[in-house]
Amino acid sequence: MQCILCKGTALFFKEAHEIKYYQCKNCGSVQMDPQFYISLHAEESRYLTHNNDVDDPRYQNFVSPITKRVLQDFNSSKTGLDYGCGTGPVAASELFKKDFKVALYDPFFKPDKTPLSKTYDFIICCEVMEHFYNPFQEFQQFYELLNPGGKLYCKTSLFSEEVNFDKWYYKDDPTHVFFYTKESLTWIKKKFGFQKLEVLPKVIIFSK
After folding, report:
1. Nearest-angstrom CA–CA distance, 41 and 2
2. Span 145-174, mean pLDDT?
């Protein structure tokens, strides 16, 4: 099949829980065969089971690698977008406490696209990019939404040769359809013109 990110050739990789996955020869990403995508209704229902309480210290700690970097890189005069904020936009909520202005967008829970007509100094994409059915389009949009010098903060679990895919918990979520590698992140950086890519243990940062 054709890679949905770089349009390279993706060859059969694994079958798990009767779902087929392909790996791109060009960018190294692993992706679910689109015929196994669940319906949008089932996807929304799955998200509604997440207990994303913005006041939960465990959830606050989970997003802290992103929020700490935002606080390190920007002051509260800068504006941000929490893209795919879900039912509980905890990263934005934590930044609100520091007087930051952060717009919210989520295709299911904050579907008003008005925020997508503006530009931002930073964008948060926390545990969202693995859900993208069209990652090429999404990252192109991220680049266009960022002001010069802006940063895109992502959080996802990367695939590598060290990962035992058969036992990897991350693939077992039926809404996770695309798994990135360091190679695919580098491809994104070069393709869309980001100036810098930082692949840190708990956060990925693209700088425009």
Report:
1. 26
2. 97
Length in residues, the chain? 208
User: Which residues are paired to 81 by β-bridges?
Assistant: 103, 123
Distance of alpha carbon 28 from alpha carbon 179, whole angstroms: 9
Architecture of domain 10-207: 3-Layer(aba) Sandwich (3.40)
Task: Give pLDDT, residue 5.
Answer: 98
Q: Give phi and psi for 118, each to the nearest 5.
A: -115, 175
Write down the domain spans for the chain. 10-207
Question: Euclidean distance between the first and final Cα of the chain, in Å?
Answer: 31
CA–CA separation, 34 vs 21, rounded Å?
A: 9
Return the closest-CA partner of residue 186 out of 176, 177, 198. 198
Q: How far is CA 192 from CA 5, 49, 55, in A?
A: 12, 34, 36
d(CA 83, CA 9): 29
pTM for the model: 0.95
β-strand 196-199 against 120-126: which pairing, if any? unpaired
